[in-house]
Predict the structure.
Amino acid sequence: MSYFDAAATTFQKPPQVLRAVQDAMRSCASPGRGGYRQAQRADEIVFSCRETAAELFGAAPEQVVFTMNATHGLNIALHSLVAPGGRVVISGYEHNAVARPLRLLGAQVETVAAPLFEPEQMLERMERALKRPAAACVCTHVSNVFGYRLPVERIAALCRRRGVPFVLDASQSAGCLPVRLDALGAAFIAMPGHKGLYGPQGTGILLCGQAGKPLLAGGTGSQSALMQMPQELPDRHEAGTANVAGIAGLRAGMEFVRAVSPERILRHEQALKRQAVRALRRVPQLTLYAADDAVQTGVLSVRAPADCERLAQALSAHGVAVRAGLHCAPLAHRTAGTFETGTVRLSFSAFNTAGEVRRLARQMELALSDCAPNV
Amino acid sequence: MTDYYFTFRSVTTAQRARKLCSQARLNGCVQRTPKQMARQGCGYCLIVPERHARQAADIFLQAELPLQKIYQMTAAGPKEVTL
């Protein structure tokens, strides 16, 4: 099976991630809950993961909050910043992890739509939208559907000038692009552990530029006499028992990323994407959403005159794992004009090879021939 | 030998304090703060031997670490001190 669904989850993990999870399950109790050896071991592992993340993402260890996933982190961020009716500026490429919490909060959302792979147009329109006061501006670093790299450094600078808290969704960029809390001056940056950081599912990180408002309240193993959640980070957002085994795996995943280097991982994924584009251009039925590496990472959407879900199913039968449909990002599909059909998305990781991509065009042709035309 | 207890609100800060000490080659171990020193309930402390206590206090001050209190552990019990 060629696994080309890294934008959902990196399925192939470095072996040290599996070992770290097992070791933690064998040796750790709960962090912040006891003075005995197993609890102290958990304290050390969790702190060490916080330190690794802090170094990788330009933050202090206290600013690193462990979450269940990026969605969890984004919910904390938006709950902290947005009151009902508050105006929020978002890009037209946001995931439902942003759009749905904003709907739940009753925010007044202004969606800045600009054509795919046109960062200058996005920037111009963002600048116009940010002339009016806003409770927050939320932007994805990379579209999960198209791999489109948005100009978030310049959008963050605009937000700093206007005094608008900036929230970055780094779900598709953490581990392959520079993501730094100190450089962006963001209010919050959310990322999953299970994609480009090669950690286990059920892990995530929220980098906090401010204290924020707790989404969940409960025991933290600290200041237990107080009835309110602690003011201090990271305890303020970490109620309940931590996912120690997951965090141990996440640490090993981040160490892997650091050892290989995010730049090399990006170059590898982009090389595979370019190879896929060259190969799939020879399949005449396909429309490819491809652009230069400057504005696209290793994620590629394609469209065919066949139902995208059926095509993905047929690809699976021919040994290719991809994701089809709206990818939980209807906004992005509306902005790019692919909402009615959806797309089939190929997304690469550090573990994919040129050999797998060489077989792709033939597998795609076979899958297309298995599918009846769209009606 | 007298030990000094540096108390912190969270285990993360206590771990950071331990790391700073270890970088300066000072001994210190993280433990749960004894109940009589933890005025807001559960907390963590770094226990440092007397010979390293002043230097540790300076390091925490320089790193702007949110320190709660410093206690000297005597035979009669803990005594709050400033260093």
Remarks:
- The CA atoms of residues 20 and 59 of chain B lie 7 Å apart.
- DSSP finds two helices and five strands in chain B.
- Chain B has a mean pLDDT of 94.
